[in-house]
Amino acid sequence: MTRDTQEANRVTPEIMAKYEAVIGLEVHVQLKTRTKAFCGCSTRFGDAPNSNTCPVCLGLPGALPVLNRRARELAIRAALALECKIQERSVFARKNYFYPDLPKGYQISQYELPLALAGSLKIEAEGAAKRIGITRVHMEEDAAKNLHEGFADSDRWSYIDYNRCGTPLIEIVSEPDIRTPAEAYSYLTTLKQVLEYTEVSDCNMEEGSLRCDANVSVRLRGAPKFGTKVEAKNLNSFRYLAHALEYEIERQIGVMEAGGTVTQETRLWNVAGGRTEAMRSKEFAHDYRYFPDPDLLPLTASAALVEQVRAAMPELPDAKRARFVSEYGIAEYDAGVLTATRALAGYFEAVARAGAPARAAATWISVELLRRLKDAGKEIEDCPLAPAALAELLAIVERGEITAASGKRVFATMFDTGKKAREIIASEGMAQISDPGAIETIARAVIAKNPENLAKYRGGSEGVFKYFVGQVIKESRGQANPQIVNEILKRVLAEA
Ligand code: ADP
Ligand code: ZN
Ligand code: MG
Fold it and tell me: How far apart are CA 127 and CA 121, in angstroms?
């Protein structure tokens, strides 16, 4: 088949609907260890190029690898969080290939006997919950980083930074259970959340500590067998993953509709072009001449060690969400928003524990605070409002010392200036107006200014009452107690 027939043909939504996509993801995650997988070099990101290297990670003759215990522990933790079966004995294997970023000429990985098998991850997409099978989780080491510079042929440079070489990774391979780009997106988001919660990895996609390759094929709906799969690489953001899959699904359907067959190959996502491009024909496992690494003992994960890791496992997102609902009586939806990251969940709990009414805390954090953080381009980790300070404000609003409307103004000022709620309320004279006399004066003035609305009210229009309430509260700069405004307006309107 020529290259042309492998390129995209436009297909109509009707044709698209005849087909179904089948997707499996392979995710590489850098483990959050201080040192590398098989030597004592630092894994710190951003250090001077080639400053964190030694004979082991540079593959010098005679150097011997020793497995980092912490890496083993984190890999087991990830496998447990993904409900895998941990193998008591797994084996490191050499995956042989030549590439300048791989000085030994092979990568230490796991092949026939991986660390863990047969797990699953619950995701939600398009309103439905679904379980995606995890085929395997295995340990391996990262390669170095190639950097290319310049465009003109006469002035092009390539550099290699070996700092990353030998950093511990796990590879998480999913079953081909994913059916849509939205499900793939949700799988990756949920996986990232679990790995962050368990502190297995910081999952920073910009720094490359979370990387995803997608395998995708299409078949006619109801067809018994999977189609030929294509592997898409270079998907270094969530958006690229979804876009590349959408593009690739349509391309493959186009090839099939034109009477062709999809070629099994590796394709690269071209960000600028918004398309995938053929990179190389598919390589097969036998090409790599895998064999057990004679320099390393088998990796052991005894039942005792696995139990120890399980016992030290931090609370997972699902468990936290359920606990927030039962312990704090907040809505399922809010619990989902508040547990999006462990840091945000921690913030909410700190506010609730500092004495704020939990439901109010949930609403204020998920609406007001998240909006302000977003506008300010800040993460919850750099929130200028301490949990105790927010708790104090919420308690003041709860007791009715100021109205909710004033509370929002105080909140904004606290966020911008770091001042305490009490200070702002005192200096701006915001205390809630509950004095019936003062409210009545405002109410009468509002009615006097609105003769047409008064007539409508007399004519039996209910909506106008709400208008009057709103006007009185507005005239009081949001300080009048809404309940008292209601009572007084009813009386004054009846008399008017
Ligand atoms: P390979 O031998 O090419 O490495 P694997 O069977 O190991 O293939 O699968 C690699 C990834 O591709 C897994 O995530 C798997 O779920 C997925 N996969 C396998 N077959 C298909 C298919 N026909 N369509 C889409 N994805 C697939
Ligand atoms: Zn080293
Ligand atoms: Mg494979």
Answer: 16
Phi, psi of 145 (to 5 degrees): -120, 130
pLDDT one-digit tens code per residue, 381-415: 888 889 998 998 888 888 777 778 888 888 889 88
| Number of domains the chain contains | 3
Q: Look up residue 480 and give its DSSP letter.
A: B
The pair of three-digit structure tokens given for residue 360, joined into one six-digit string? 């109010």
What is the CA(174)–ligand 3 centre distance, in A? 10
Q: What is the pLDDT of residues 430-470, one digit of tens each?
A: 667 778 888 888 888 888 888 888 888 888 887 888 888 88
- Give the whole-angstrom CA distance, residue 89 versus residue 93: 13
Q: pTM score, two decimals?
A: 0.80
Instruction: With H, G, I as helix, E, B as strand and everything else as coil, classify residue 143.
Output: coil
Cβ-contact 80, 312 below 8 angstroms: no
Domain-located, residue 132? yes
Alpha carbons 168 and 166: distance in angstroms, whole number: 6
Give the ligand whose atoms come closest to the C-alpha of residue 175: 1
Kindly state whether residues 28 and 158 are assigned to the same domain: yes
How far does the centroid of ligand 2 lie from the alpha carbon of residue 200, in Å? 21
Domain that holds residue 45: 3-304
Same domain, 394 and 487: no
Give the residue, out of 228, 229, 249, with the most ligand 1 atoms within 8 A of its beta carbon, to mutate for a pocket test: 229
Measured distance CA(346)–CA(429) in Å, rounded? 33
Instruction: Please state, in angstroms and as integers, the Cα–Cα distance from residue 134 to each residue in 146, 168, 200, 259, 306, following that order.
Output: 31, 20, 17, 34, 19
